[in-house]
């Protein structure tokens, strides 16, 4: 028997990972010392799990696809532009648009800076050391790992997020979407294509 594996897999029948158990323990200590209000913490977690997510960023992209004026304002001043949709001002947000010649991809090489208010909780792979290092060294290879193959003449630009800058990729609008409503367009926008590791869904294709 692998004793190491057994040790980490036997927390009195708990299905929580060791990291989850540590987080729970830390929450308990902070709450008991009065540093954290459990109700406030629950509200924050609920917001990022249910109310805030990729559908917010998808609304922004869909508007940019359907309104050239908004697209220009978004690329020039994203924090102000998103308020036109009734969203809170996102002070560190920078929108970057893909073109046939340039594909943008976002990484945070130091930690995991991420536009939470636009995309919700970051995917596990975004925080991994492998993605953070390879995205800079071999971006085309990373894209291939995600199943995203670009034309050979399309350059790839990698943007490094920081505490002061959070990037939102505006992908190219898929062909065959003329006449689509913003709601229908938003349904084609994925979290990964707003990070730059994927492309929008193709109209009519299975999710």
How would you describe what is shown here?
With 207 residues, the protein is mainly alpha-helical. It has two domains: 18-51, no CATH class; 53-195, Nitrile Hydratase, Chain A (Alpha-Beta Complex). The protein contains twelve helices and four strands; from the N terminus they run H-H-H-H-H-H-E-E-H-H-H-H-E-E-H-H. The chain has helices at residues 3-8, 18-32, 38-51, 54-66, 68-76, 78-81, 116-119, 124-127, 129-137, 139-145, 182-186, 191-195, and strands spanning 93-97, 102-107, 155-160, 166-170.
**Unreliable stretches:** 1-14
Q: Structural class of the secondary elements?
A: mainly alpha
Helix-strand pattern: HHHHHHEEHHHHEEHH
Indicate the overall shape: globular
Helix content: 40-55%
Q: What is the mean predicted local confidence, pLDDT?
A: 86
Main β-sheet description: 2 strands, parallel
Q: Hey, roughly how much beta strand do the residues contain?
A: 5-15%
The name of the CATH topology of the largest domain is: Nitrile Hydratase, Chain A
Spatial strand arrangement across the major sheet: 1-4
> End-to-end span in angstroms?
41 Å
Provide the domain count. Answer: 2
How large is the count of helical segments? 12
Under the CATH scheme, which architecture of the largest domain would be assigned? Alpha-Beta Complex
Overall number of strands? 4
Highest-level CATH class of the largest domain: Alpha Beta
Mind telling me the CATH superfamily name of the largest domain? Nitrile hydratase alpha /Thiocyanate hydrolase gamma
- Gyration radius (Cα, Å) is 20 Å
């Amino acid at each position: 028997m692998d004793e190491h594996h057994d040790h980490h897999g036997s927390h009195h029948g708990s299905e929580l990972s060791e990291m989850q158990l540590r987080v729970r323990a830390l929450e308990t200590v902070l709450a008991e010392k009065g540093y954290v209000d459990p109700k406030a913490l629950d509200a924050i977690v609920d917001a990022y799990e249910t109310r805030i997510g990729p559908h917010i960023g998808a609304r922004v992209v869909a508007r940019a696809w359907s309104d050239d004026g908004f697209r220009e304002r978004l690329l020039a001043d994203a924090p102000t532009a998103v308020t036109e949709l009734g969203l809170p001002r996102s002070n560190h947000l920078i929108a970057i648009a893909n073109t046939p010649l340039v594909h943008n991809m976002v990484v945070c090489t130091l930690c995991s800076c991420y536009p939470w208010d636009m995309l919700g909780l970051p995917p596990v792979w975004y925080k991994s050391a492998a993605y953070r290092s390879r995205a800079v060294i071999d971006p085309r290879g990373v894209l291939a790992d995600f199943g995203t193959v670009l034309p050979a003449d399309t350059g790839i630009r990698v943007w490094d997020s920081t505490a002061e800058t959070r990037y939102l990729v505006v992908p190219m609008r898929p062909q065959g979407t003329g006449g689509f409503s913003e709601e229908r367009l938003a349904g084609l926008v994925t979290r990964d294509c707003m990070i730059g590791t994927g492309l929008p869904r193709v109209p009519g294709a299975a999710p």
